[in-house]
Amino acid sequence: MEILMGERVCLRSLTDTDTQALFSYYSDPEAMRYWAWPAYTEVAQAQKLLTEAQEGSPEAGYLAWGIAQRTGNALLGTCSLYRIDLNNGRAEIGYLLGRPHWGQGLASEAVVLAIDYAFTTLGLRRLEADIDPRNVGSHKLLERLGFERDGYLRERWCVAGEISDSALYGLLAREWKRK
After folding, report:
1. Which end of the chain is more exposed for a tag (fewer CB within 10 A), N or C?
2. What pTM, to 2 d.p., does this model score?
C-alpha cells in the first residue's frame, strides 16, 4: 500500500511494531466512546485488527492505514475505508485518533488524504460515515469536509449494553473540494 503524505501526517501501512500503540488507542474508553464496539481489553484484539489491516485490499472491501507523524513515523491513530464496493463506487470511512492528538486538526488532515485516495485512486463516487450523534467532534469534522447528513437511524447499535443512534453522512466525488 502506498504512503499518502500530508503536511503533518501520513497514512501508511500498519506494521507489527504498531501493536502496542493500537492497543493503547483502542483500549481507551474515552476514545472508543462512540464506536460500534467496546474498548479493547486484550492486546490480542489489537493484533487481530493489525492482521486484518495488513490483509486488506480494495477488492477485499477493506483498506486500513496508520495515521502517523510525517516526521518520526509514530502512530497517532487509524483511518480506514471499509465496505468498499468497487462495482457501485462507494465505501464507508472511519477514523480513530489517540486522545493525546485530539484538537490539533490531525484527524481532518488524515481524512482528507483518505478521501482523495478514495475518489482519485479508487475512482469511487460516494463515501459514507456512520457516527454516533453525540460525537460532536466527528460531526464538525465531517461537515467541515463537505459531508452532508443523509439520515438518522434510531437505536441502531448496542455496545456494552448501551443503546445508541446513528447519524449517516455522505460525500459525493462530484461535490468534493479538497480542504
Report:
1. C
2. 0.94
